[in-house]
Amino acid sequence: MDFDWQKGFSLNFDLNTGLSNNAKSTTRMLSQMSGMYNDNVAFENLVKESNPLVYEFYELGAPNHEGDLAAGTSICYPGKVGQEYFMTKGHFHTILDTAEIYYGLSGTGMMLIENSSGDWGAFPISSGEMVYVPKGYAHRSINVGNVPLVTFFTFRGDAGHNYGAIEEKGFRKLVVEQDGKPTIADNPKWH
Ligand code: MN
Fold first, then answer.
1. Contact predicate 145/76, CB 8 Å
2. How far is ligand 1, taken at its centre, from the CA of residue 81, in Å?
3. What is the spatial distance between Cα 130 and Cα 14, in angstroms, rounded to a whole number?
4. Centroid of ligand 1 to alpha carbon of 63 (angstroms)
C-alpha cells in the first residue's frame, strides 16, 4: 500500500489482525528470542517442538522525519515459555527522549516499561485501553490472555528502535503465571 504522507490518507483497518489488505508484517519466531525468557529448558524444548510465532507487527512506513508519525499494529500471540507469558522483545527508542501511545484493539495484556535509572511500571492493556509510554522508557507488550493481543501504536517518525540494550540486559521484571494469574516477578537474569 502506498500512503500519501504529504497530503494525508485514510485507511481501512482490521481490528483483529492488524492492518488490512496487502500489508506485510515483520514476524518474530520464538527461536529469534534466544536468552530473553527466564526458563532456558522450556525455551529450548518449545523451539524444538514447534518454534511458534510469538509476535508480529505491521508498520505503515512513515518518513524518517521528526514531524511525521510512525504507526502500525502489533500482534502478540497467546502462549507461555515455562510460566512466562509470550511477549515482544521490547526496545528503547534510538532517540531516547520520545514517547509512544499504544491503544488496545483486542486481547488482554500488560505493557512493561522501565528506564535506565531503575524506575519501572506495568500497565494493563486490552480492548479500549490506552497506554502512554513516557519518553526514556523501554517497553514490551505481554499477552496474558488466551487470544491474540492486538494493539495500535504511534510515535515520532524518526525515533527508531534500539533493541540491543534489552537483548543484553533484559527487563528488571518478568510477567509470569502464578496460581493461574499474571504476576510480576524479579528477573533473575537481569544484570
Ligand atoms: Mn516503541
1. no
2. 23
3. 18
4. 16
Residues 6+ apart with CB under 8 A from 34: 43
**CA atoms of 68 and 98, how far apart (whole Å):** 13
| CA 27 remoteness from chain centre | 12
Residue 49 Cα, ligand 1 centroid: separation in angstroms?
Answer: 31
Quote the pTM value. Answer: 0.94
For ligand 1, the distance from its centroid to the CA atom of residue 58, given in whole angstroms, is 13
The strands making up 69-76's β-sheet, listed across from edge to edge, are 26-29, 53-59, 69-76, 149-156, 100-106, 130-133
If you measure from the C-alpha of residue 105 to the centroid of ligand 1, how many angstroms do you get, rounded to a whole number? 17
How far apart are the CA of 95 and the centre of ligand 1, in A? 10
CA of 153 to the centre of ligand 1 (A): 8
Please report, in tens digits, the pLDDT of each residue of the chain (191 residues total): 678 999 999 887 776 666 665 567 899 999 999 999 999 999 999 999 999 999 999 888 899 999 999 999 999 999 999 999 999 999 999 999 999 999 999 999 999 999 999 999 999 999 999 999 999 999 999 999 999 999 999 999 999 999 998 988 899 999 999 999 999 999 998 87
- Kindly report the number of other CB atoms within 10 A of residue 39's CB atom: 16
